[in-house]
Amino acid sequence: MGDFMGEIEEIPFNVCGIIHGKYVIIAPIDDSVDRDFMIYSVFDAKNPDTLYYAYIPRNDVPQERSMNSISATVRVLEKCRGRSKHFPKLVKFGRIPDLIFGLEQEQQRERDPEWLTRPVIVVQHDTINLAAIMSLSPTGYVPLLLSLTVGMGMIRALAALHRAGFVHRLVSPHSFACKNVATLENLATSLMFIDLSLAMPWPMKPRPYVPFVGTLRYSSLRAHNGRDQCPADDIISVIYIVAEMISGRLPWRSVFEERRVKQQKAIFYSSLEFKKLPQEIRFLYKRLYTMESHTVLTQQDYEEFLGFFKRAIERKDPESKFQLPHWLFTSAGD
To answer: Cα(255)–Cα(239) distance, rounded to whole angstroms?
Structure first.
């Protein structure tokens, strides 16, 4: 042990220890978004070449909120176990009596644990966070054809989630990851969910009013209007993401007041960012925008949505000559 003599700060970044006598917590992942839980890289000595991650509720987030996030994740992963490549493998779901915090080779147990049955899940996957991939662009925006390819990948993953009986409600680049290494094929067909914390069973009986749930940047207008979200809202979020990739921004990028964001989204169709979208995607957005919240999407609907993306790609790249940009290829291989 070192010469550290003080009390270790009880913050999520300092969490360490061993989960259920098997999974050694290495470090939190490099995450650019605040979640209700922390994601940690963990190591299993019996399977040293397998990548595992632990989701542990943060000790600086209200228990009920973080518990709901973990419960939602487990509910989806248990139902979808072995059913689709778009979901990480749920390896372990259990509880821990307290947290261990470490600093400079010293470890201390949580001094006054308030949550004696803190849930923890361990998942297995080998992926690259989609948000991290997109942030590597030296220009701040992403080539149109790559943006459309990623959009197709998100729609395919969401179709699997919707078929399983859930709506995501937190669609953003931070909720998806791409198989390592990133290729056009993997981006288009094999994106995986890494955040299911707001996933909710659907269809469900509509509620008269729902407080805003989601992200200011990507949630659909329905979320701002106090309505239950539906599968169409998840797809609208995908279009916002694609528009942001193509233009490098959304009209409400620097707006943090929900009322003003709502106003901007209501006139998105008149923005420059919307006009930069291929005509096929603009048509799809307008169609989704007018769908009723109780609309049940069929397999044919998802195939039609993907068809809009495919036609846009074929029109822009009829000879299929597009290749991944150099910055993505080299970074994905690091």
So the answer is: 19
